[in-house]
Fold each of these.
Amino acid sequence: MPDYKSYPVWDAGTRWFHWVNFICVVGLSFIGLIILNGDFFQPATQTKINLKVVHVWIGYVFALNLLWRMVWAFFGNRHARWRAILPGGRGYFAAVRSYIGSFIKGSPEFYIGHNPVGKIAILLLMLALIVQAVTGLVLAGTDVFYPPLGGYFADWIAADGVTPADILPYAPELYNEAAYQSMRAFRKPFITVHLYNFYVLSGLIFLHVFAVVMSEIKGEGDIISAMFSGRKISEQQPKDQVREKTNE
């Protein structure tokens, strides 16, 4: 009979981040695609503004949640910390080769935390999420004049005699036309990066889900359920546990 053992892995802070991030990404993607395809949906101006406002508020939750995860990587359990989730370190490339070889053979090595290849995916996902959050905060200021930069952009484009606090989206009568066009030129690279990074992020998420499903099929330790329970179950000896005992 297989001797299955249960191993604690994802603490509550990590699990909460994962599912809040999932909900935010789904919501932001759905609303963002409606905004992006405005020519098809043809929403009224106020509807368009409302969509952008909701997009921004979800974006705030998304950005704060991401910031929380970056801070938690200094304080969480050993599987949540930076050194456990980012690639690198002594013997890392040998571990990557070993893991890939075991995966190809149909019996992937069991890791309690992220496996060596998974760490590369985590790095790429984190970078894409950070880029999306930063560019989104800039665009929140240019589109609906929301914090943290909305006041700066409102002051930039306000027409003579107009108080920046009174600036509204889609109200050209309140804008200095030359300043507005200058602001839009400044905004352009941020919207371009935000758009194309969304495609990159979507691709990375697809690969992440595909890899998780394939790992589950090959029996790699209840990866999906662990994000609910915080524990992995396997009959294999964990490779990362072996490495830790070796280094003691």
Note: The chain has one domain: 5-247.
Amino acid sequence: MRVELTKYRVKEGKSELVDEWIEYMHNHMDDVLMNLEGEKMFVETIFREAFNDVEYLYWYSVQDVETTEQEVNADELDQKHIEYWEQCIDKTFRPEDMKAEIVMIPKKIRDAMQFDENQ
């Protein structure tokens, strides 16, 4: 199991486009959730923060460690997501990966995710 939290900076002036992006995801949630299954993504959450007049998005995910990029389906939803990403995420800011010091997931949830503690 891979648990990640990464911070990305939003390009200046793109806050309304981020609003549109998030609304798009909400409006297509059934497709989003189906894609997550194909990616062996158990949990994916996007947090949003404005700090000192700069906006950031944080991606938190819990994913099967065995997932490969080839398993990700490149359908219309993914293409739209990539378009928003390209327009909104500031590539001059190096994404910050947070270090997971401890992962607390109850056994029944790990079992449901088919989590192997020896990985």
Note: The chain has one domain: 2-112.
Amino acid sequence: MRSMNGQKERDGEISLKLFVVLSRAMQAIQKRVEANIKGFGLNLTEFAVLELLYHKGEQPIQKIGQKVLLASSSITYVVDKLEKKGYLVRQPCPNDRRVIYAVLTDEGKKMMEKIFPMHREAMMEILGGLTTEEKEWTIEKIKKLGLYAKKGESST
């Protein structure tokens, strides 16, 4: 019985340490990624929207928020800014007037064709502390952790 309590106590300490280590690592990575993206004249959310459109094609504005993990109230603001910069346009859906698509302009495509390879290189450098195999293992474990945490959301 005593060893069970000892194991539970150790697991509690390790769980707290893991949370701190993950949080600090994410802060450090986020800071470097934001600095990289700022060098392109964009903020993180603008880049995320452009990257989504660049890789997935036109998207309903209403759906962009959930795909780039941004509150729907902020999407209109980000889309407005990107439209003013000439990187995207709004296009009404021909079948449903309630749906508006965000579509990359030629200028937006050219810009992403130029900066995305540089961003990819920066990500490889920023995350260069792990080998490719370690990155694959880490992805698998963090996904598992996230899915487990998400399962618990409904019970809280």
Note: The radius of gyration is 20 Å.
